[in-house]
């Protein structure tokens, strides 16, 4: 088991200007009108690839709060094999994986699929969401931020 080198809260205190910029970048896609559930699936998938436990947990919990179906959360790691994802979600997940892994750039096939599902503006903002989560993942993985705990349900706490 690894131990945190610093925590998420430390980032806000130590480098608040960097924190604010990364946070702002991550919010642009939603402000531009991209579906928040789709954005969360993309951020979750990139975080899985990058091995950022803090970000995986954060985006699972956030996805649950905004109503992403639990089956999608369980299957996002194997989205190619799961028919539950729409063509638009598949294009976004393929785009996120291509931009996260980048060994050979983005293939013509992945670009064409994304361009079929997203306008040029949407694709730019989707790219900003992928870029932002990759930045967060670099901080979370480098400093081994401790994943947040699932909030205890009020009725469970009363038991």
Automatic annotation (TrEMBL):
<dbReference type="GO" id="GO:0051920">
    <property type="term" value="F:peroxiredoxin activity"/>
</dbReference>
<keyword id="KW-0575">Peroxidase</keyword>
<keyword id="KW-0560">Oxidoreductase</keyword>
<dbReference type="InterPro" id="IPR029032">
    <property type="entry name" value="AhpD-like"/>
</dbReference>
<protein>
    <submittedName>
        <fullName>Alkylhydroperoxidase</fullName>
    </submittedName>
</protein>
<feature type="domain" description="Carboxymuconolactone decarboxylase-like">
    <location>
        <begin position="16"/>
        <end position="98"/>
    </location>
</feature>
<dbReference type="InterPro" id="IPR003779">
    <property type="entry name" value="CMD-like"/>
</dbReference>
<dbReference type="Pfam" id="PF02627">
    <property type="entry name" value="CMD"/>
</dbReference>
<dbReference type="InterPro" id="IPR004675">
    <property type="entry name" value="AhpD_core"/>
</dbReference>
């Amino acid at each position: 088991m690894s131990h945190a080198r610093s925590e998420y809260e430390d980032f806000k205190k130590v480098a608040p200007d960097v924190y604010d910029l990364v946070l702002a970048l991550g919010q642009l896609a939603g402000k531009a009108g991209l579906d928040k559930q789709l954005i969360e699936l993309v951020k979750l998938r990139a975080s899985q690839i990058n091995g950022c436990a803090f970000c995986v947990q954060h985006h699972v919990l956030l996805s649950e709060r905004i109503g992403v179906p639990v089956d999608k959360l369980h299957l996002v790691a194997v989205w190619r094999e799961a028919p539950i994802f729409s063509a638009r979600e598949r294009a976004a997940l393929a785009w996120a994986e291509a931009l996260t892994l980048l060994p050979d750039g983005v293939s013509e096939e992945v670009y064409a699929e994304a361009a079929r599902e997203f306008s040029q503006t949407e694709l730019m903002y989707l790219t900003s969401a992928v870029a932002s989560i990759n930045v967060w993942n670099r901080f979370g993985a480098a400093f081994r931020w401790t994943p947040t705990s699932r909030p205890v349900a009020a009725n469970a706490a009363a038991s």
